[in-house]
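User: Structure tokens for this complex, please. No commentary.
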Amino acid sequence: MTNQRLSDPAVDSRAIKFETRHVDVFYGETQAIKDVSVDILDNTVTAFIGPSGCGKSTFLRCLNRMNDTIDICRVTGDLLLDGQDVYARSVDPVQLRARVGMVFQKPNPFPKSIYDNVAYGPKIHGLVGNKADLDAVVEQSLRKAAIWDEVKDRLDQPGTGLSGGQQQRLCIARAIATAPEVLLMDEPCSALDPIATAQVEELIDELRESYSVVIVTHSMQQAARVSQKTAFFHLGVMVEYDDTTKIFTNPTDKRTQDYITGRFG
Amino acid sequence: MVSSSDISAIHGSAAAADRLRRRRAAEWRLKAYGIAALTLAGAALVILVGSTVMKASLAVTEHYVELGFELSPEEVGTTPEEIRRANFDGIVKAKLRSRLPSLAENRAARRELYDVVSSGASFELRERVLAEPALVGTGFDFPLLASDDVDLYLKGVHGGLRTAEHSGVLSPTGTTGEIRLLSTADDFEPLLDEVKVTLLEEAEQMRRLAARQEAGRAVRQDDAAAAETEAERERLLAEAQRYADQRDVYNRQADALDARAARPGGTEALTPTTPSVFIRVNGGVVRATEVSSSEIAGEVMIPLESEAEAPPEDWTYLVMSTPENSRRISDVQIVAVETLREQGAVDSSFNWRFFTSADSREPELAGIWGAAVGSFWTLLVTFCLAFPIGVLAAIYLEEFAPRNRLTDFIEVNINNLAAVPSIVFGLLGLAIFVAGIEVFGVEIGGFMPRSAPIAGGAVLALMTLPTIIIASRAAIRAVPPSIREAALGVGASKLQTSFHHVLPLAMPGILTGTIIGMAQALGETAPLIMIGMVAFIVEIPGGITDSATVLPVQVYRWSDFPERAFEARTAAAICVLLLFLVAMNALAVFLRRRFERRW
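Assistant:
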């Protein structure tokens, strides 16, 4: 697997961006996440892998409090972004989500123009003062999302008219337009064909330069290709968290070994 | 246990084939029922619309009597004030009198003659002169609106004049007054027979009266037999005798009528209960009062030019089969209208008045514009109240409200409200908006005027709210959650998510629901009757606090009036109302088609 790698597997000693300690998540009476503690590093791609229903998406959505929209969801434990608890009363989820951007499984551009899709975040957060700056932010974001060349001539056309891969890259551009520090990706390639997947994966690796990226994926190959750190989740428990190369070559836990060798999941 | 080979053997069996046949028959029957139901529904619709349109067709045109006027400054003055005060009613009447002097000789006939034109005609003449004072002193033609009955007569509703066959040479005995008309042939024999049929009917009626007297006599006779005292018995017997005498009188009259009817020839009088007969000869018109087989006695209504004998082709024998008592247009009016028509003074045109004027007691003057404007103001109030409240309620319930017992309870009750009879909303509106209620000594409500669009609109808003809320919630729910996630994901607040993304996407559905709710409100009658919007309003309402009525209430009011002309106007108003409803529903369908998004 290692010969397919896109990225540099080495993890330099980098600062901890997100520090989570003893996180439990409950949906009503059921516990979805049990005592998870992970340190997510800056300028690193961290992959969450595991079988369906193991809680990796739930955990991801805790990081920018998207679980708040679910009435019955309850989160306990510490989730510290740069040392600050994101679940503290003083933290506004709206501000948090500007700092922790998210890309979803299915490309979900707004049914508006490509320009408006990207400009929406900066506009509502008041990040730019005038139209020229906004244009610059939109272009920058689209360039970073590696889609600028494809859409620069049709910025006023609806974002929903793009192909699936383009839509997903547009969603990434939209997410990075608010200049987040962390980018959460919830199975960003599961609705895409292999070519679009390859483009997005390449993009993820480039994004590592500027952001801390957390990606949930079903595809172990994808995790192996794009990530430096990998966490394996099973039945709501984080089984193992280590360097990607270590997880895929020499896992400590038997369950991780079984999963990556395809014995279950 | 059955083995699968046992089961598979069933497939080819006769029982399986039979079952298959029955299944196909059931399918065919269901299809047939469906087609039958559709046909029935379609036929009902066609009949409904067809009959309404047919009735309404009578209101499509209106008739005029065009007369030349020459108004002198002495008569009407020259300044607007003088013109406003002038007696235009008298001028119109004088004009009619001078145009048909022979029909205006006695008061009863004069009144009938005046009724040929509408009471609104003189107002219109005044308006015309006011608008153009230069007309005073010059001659001009002015179309006087015909009265409703004359209009319907001209449209053939009250039965037309029938031209009867004749072959004799007619010789009149005079030119004015009571004259006799002698024909050389038995031209009037069929008429005589027709009159005799009415005699037989009259005799029949007499016999029925006699039978009633006989029944009375029998009762007294029986009572007398059972009487306790002699005096009582005698009193009852005397009474019985009186009944018997009356019975005999009726029977004798009936016998006499029968005899008259049976006798060949003879002379019979024409009364308001027999058909009317007019003879047009030598430029005049005679109304028959007595008829025998070859001779008619009658009164001259339009003077004859001479007593010259008229060959068959030079005189006309006109019969109006409906007796004068049974129709809304009198003999005098028929002669007046026919004479004016002969002179080319009767004309018709498209009934614009119906679409531009307000209600009136006179059907020929009544229009729906007042009601249409009332409907507009009412719906405006309804929309301004129901749309924002409904949409905000729907957004709150869908996007913000926690799911708990309270919101479940609210949801159930909104659905219940949609099923509440509209008259209940009317009572509620009357009690709260118009009358006001006292709760613990505090007066609540009662701030709205009666009969005004603001009160009606508020009531209709209550009624429309559930529709709008339910439709809006469905539309909001149809917006995929991925859009909300996307917005929340870039850091939009819940409010921004709702108003920037969810609401615009749900708007076509919300508007569709709103338009359907509005269409429902447009057709609503009962609650508006409760709050007094059923009044007779001649003014076109200028705002939401003026007294007004609405289209369906106008239909309801007119349908209650006895005049035939109102029947046509009722149908025409229904057509207008249906057109509005169809247009609104078409708009809803258009919006849905045009702006519907698929994900």
